[in-house]
Amino acid sequence: MDIIKTIEWKDNKVIMLDQRRLPHEELYNTYEDYLGVAKAIKNMVIRGAPAIGVAAAMGTALGAMGIGVENFDEFFQKLSAICDRLGETRPTAVNLFWALARMKACAQLNKELPIPEIAEKLKEEALKIYTEDLESNHMIGRNGEKLLQDGMTVLTHCNAGALATAGFGTALGVIYSATNAGKRIHVIADETRPRLQGAMLTAWELQKHGIEVTVISDTMMGSLMKQREIDACIVGADRIAANGDVANKIGTYQVAVLANRHGVPFYVAAPLSTIDLDIKSGNDIPIEERDPKEVTHIGPIHITPDYVKIQNPAFDVTPAELITAIITEKGVVEGPYENSISKLFN
Predict the structure, then answer these.
(1) In what order do the strands lie in the sheet with 13-17?
(2) Could you read off the pLDDT of 190-202 as tens digits, one per residue?
(3) Which residues contact 346 (CB under 8 A, 6 or more apart)?
(4) Does residue 238 have an active-site annotation?
(5) Which of the following CATH numbers is that of domain 140-344: 3.40.50.10470, 2.60.120.1440, 3.40.50.20, 3.40.630.30?
(6) Which of 220, 224, 231, 288 could form a disulfide with 216 if both were Cys (CB 3.0 to 4.6 A apart)?
(7) By the 8 A CB rule, do 207 and 141 touch?
């Protein structure tokens, strides 16, 4: 299977596939400084928690290369300001903050080296985060595909594929691995309002890999579950609390509720970097509120009356009791999640 290059480092520049242009145009943007990377994350040129983490690490490395000082304390102060700027872009995806903390720790670990060598170490760390994400995605896929049987129809929400990661996918990685194992999987991608990541990104990605996909509106899934036309649901995650509550794209909660009502397994696929042990429950996860225009407009077309009030939270929280299992690179865990998740880190 061809790897979709969501993001890569080349000639000390960061190159990203502009996901806002899909599915109609495959355009790659080049970024030469961390401010450009920060803007790309904020404006959703790149999205998906693992991919955001990789982008933040690469943005930090770019920023470090431009710090022209010789004293480490001054260097680290400026590096911390760079990380703060990148950290302002998307508050819910914990991979962002995980990657930034790792980059700062790398700088501290190498503080005795000359500044140019520290910058080189940060570049190496960013590339390591990229490589590790690819490896963990493949492991998630191998662990999760055992849950899928030949001929199943699987519903997925938003996009948790190669486009949301360094290049393979979490939820879709499970489907890719099942397909590689010779299983015939039919995917139903709900459109995922308001930004339509399912209709525009997941459908594009699956079609590119030759996997049968049907796009439905978000309002159709309950009816299809009632008619026994969906065998399982698999989604990604932007942050998982210590108790197993999962923050993911808005609308995930309703998928889980409907799956629970109709006895359909509901799986979450995510790397360990998405688990935030410092967050006790989903009640403590910050939820990003995005531009009202994402609701009032579809592309350039204004679809609502003028001056109506708009709410546009980008994420919701699915309680742990609605989740059949969480698929990680270290294995598949089930509830009670307070115990099973903690064991993943032992």
Answers:
(1) 7-10, 13-17, 28-31
(2) 999 999 999 999 9
(3) none
(4) yes
(5) 3.40.50.10470
(6) 220
(7) no
